[in-house]
Amino acid sequence: MSRSVKILLVDDEVGILDTLDILLRGEGYDVVRAEGGKAGLELIERERPDLVLTDIRMPGVTGLEVLARARELDPEMPVILMTAQASLQSAMRAVNEGAFYYLQKPFANDELLAICGRAVEVRALKVENRALKKEIRRRDRSADLRPVGKARGFTDVLRLAETVAPTDSTVLISGESGTGKEVVARYIHGLSHRAGETFSSINCGALPESLLESELFGHTKGSFTGAVRDKVGLLVAAGGGTLFLDEIGEMSPATQVKLLRAIQEREVIPVGSTDPVAVDVRILAATNRDLEDEIRRGAFRSDLYYRLNVIQLHLPPLRERKEDIPLLARYFVDRLGREQSREVPLDLDDDALAALNEYDWPGNVRELENALERAAVLAKGNAITLGALPDRVREAPPLRVVGGGLPPNPTMEVIEKAYILWVLQAEGGNKTRASEVLGIDPSTLYRKLNRFGIEV
Hints:
alpha/beta; Rossmann fold; Helicase, Ruva Protein, domain 3; 4 domains; 5-stranded parallel sheet; 16 strands; 49% helix
């Protein structure tokens, strides 16, 4: 055998277990034995065998119950039923409930070995067929879900995302605000084996520390003022699926410790509780900060960084993928036209497209989408013209320097501060509009303004 096949034997007679154990081990099988149906149910869950060989008539838990549990855990797990009191009715019932074979005692050793061999072969074929179908579906989804872009730096990121998607590895997605980090996270989820389950996301910079802990880990009734009922946290609620943690760099040190424990131990302790709850969720995180710089400043834990940064994807800003601007613009215009239920498709004239190409898009793809959404609303007729675009796109020079120029080799914090100042100036000091362009919540913008000492 290319690998050891695990067979679970279930019978309430020790003599039969001993005989079958010797026979099957002699053929190279890995044998696990359970004395009685109750022990059989426990071992199915723990051992996840490739094949189950069980007696039907046992006190307490019968072979049919063992069969039902095996089918529930793995529909492709073959189960061979044995009985000394065979009847046509019981045989038909066993087959209808999914048994691979119905074997009457006493039986010849060669007969049993032949049936076990066929069962293993059938299972292997089913597993291979399932894997092939899954790969075909994954490739089909890849074509349907693939984010828009052909620039080399961007397509390199997508190829790496497609490579890591089928795994459960944590992924850290970095890049400026608005570059499409959540879009790529959803792309990874859509290509993973968790695609049929929940994709949940939370902005770690949009909530106060206490509320963020409750959202992530859950809480018990009465654990704090306002906790009128138990709450299941996202790490548990997204069980089987994917949890996207945006702006992970905004998370407080105390919450970082709890998140690290949850990733390492695969369990969480809700606020106000002492009992751990198991979690099964894939973590994808995103940041627009330089987390290594944050570590040097003592603002981010290095151990959490290395846990999150198993695979890193860095999304280039839109100004570094200019050839994607026409593709993205056409994509957004087509989508906006459909959303507005226009009888004639919405178009984009050449002058407007030229202006989009010339602008440096400090807010990246999100700013481009917002600008086109505004233009679609203001468009007269079925074409977006230059006049429908925001003033900053039509008139503002490309963003090269801010506030008299940046120092050589500026840190991400210096660039972030300069960028926020530039957007605020472009929006006339309107913080609500600036937060939309920046792609962050107003509360996050206010915290950043306080941290940078910016007064508007």
